[in-house]
Amino acid sequence: MSTEILAPMPGTIIEVLVSPGDEVVEGQELLILEAMKMENPIVSTIDGKIKEINVAVDDKVATKQVMLTIE
Q: For 4-21, what is each residue's pLDDT tens digit?
């Protein structure tokens, strides 16, 4: 079963901390999203493996946009 990590707010991706195939644990930082001049860490909600990353540094994201998938 896959879990999608969604953008909690509109903003810009300023750092991607994982790659496809990486093992992650719940609470691990995956991305840094800049919104309203603040850096917001996006963390994993489950233990698993990064299946797909749909964003890159400098990408603009919308609220609830799928940023990555964990399986």
A: 999 999 999 999 999 999
